């Protein structure tokens, strides 16, 4: 008997190539979507981390400086928004520390007593979307940090009851 099939036909070759192309395209789509998902998750986690760092920093700073007549909540001249002012006084004069929100970041600024803060004199604590601070009637400071996750606004807040009572 004679073997009629001695080689592959053009149709079989084209089918194998189409299957390889289809398989390659499917793998490429999976890799791309996996990369997009990873980037979205990393962005979400970074926003949460920045918000937690900002809130933790503010809470720690307030607790470290909890003394009578040392902490004030007042608007600053740079942005006009409520900010935290911590007064440190010494025989050489001392300094004021402002914690304020401007240009999408939370900043800390050390200035001479009575001077207003500015971004140029400050160091950045964290990138956030919003910062709010308020003094309750019972003497507690309420801090609110806003951030964005997957195009929806989120918020973290804390309440600090001052030991000094003021």
Summarize the model shown:
The protein is an alpha+beta fold and 166 residues long.
Instruction: Report the count of strand segments.
Output: 8
Determine the N-to-C terminus distance.
106 Å
- Low-pLDDT regions: none
Shape call? rod-shaped
Strand order of the largest sheet: 1-2-3-4-5
Query: Mean of the pLDDT scores?
Result: 88
Structural class, please?
alpha+beta
Q: Indicate the multimeric state.
A: single chain
Biggest sheet overview: 5 strands, antiparallel
Work out the strand percent: 35-45%
| Rg result | 29 Å
Helix segment tally = 1
Helix content: 25-40%
Order of helices and strands: HEEEEEEEE
How many distinct domains? 1
What is the element layout, followed by pairings?
Layout: H1 10-64, E1 71-75, E2 82-88, E3 95-102, E4 105-111, E5 122-127, E6 130-135, E7 140-149, E8 152-161
Antiparallel strand pairs: 1-2, 2-3, 3-4, 4-5, 6-7, 7-8
Describe the model.
The chain is an alpha+beta fold. The chain has one helix at about 10-65, and strands at about 70-75, 80-90, 95-100, 105-110, 120-125, 130-135, 140-150, 150-160. It has a 5-stranded antiparallel sheet, covered by helices on one side. It has one domain. The protein has 1 helix and 8 strands.
What keywords describe this structure?
single chain, 166 residues, alpha+beta, 5-stranded antiparallel β-sheet, 3-stranded antiparallel β-sheet, 1 helix, 8 strands, rod-shaped
């Amino acid at each position: 008997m004679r073997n009629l099939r001695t080689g592959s036909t053009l149709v079989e070759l084209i089918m194998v190539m189409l299957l390889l192309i289809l398989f390659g395209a499917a793998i490429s789509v999976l890799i791309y979507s996996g990369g997009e998902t990873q980037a979205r998750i990393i962005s979400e986690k970074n926003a949460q981390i920045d918000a937690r760092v900002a809130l933790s920093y503010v809470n720690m700073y307030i607790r470290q400086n909890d003394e009578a007549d040392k902490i004030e909540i007042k608007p600053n001249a740079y942005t006009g928004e409520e900010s935290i002012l911590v007064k440190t006084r010494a025989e050489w004069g001392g300094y004021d520390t402002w914690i304020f929100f401007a240009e999408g970041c939370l900043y800390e600024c050390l200035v001479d007593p009575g001077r207003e803060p500015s971004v140029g004199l400050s160091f950045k604590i964290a990138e956030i979307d919003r910062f709010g601070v308020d003094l309750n009637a019972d003497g507690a400071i309420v801090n609110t940090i806003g951030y964005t996750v997957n195009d929806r606004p989120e918020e973290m807040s804390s309440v600090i009851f001052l030991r000094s009572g003021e």
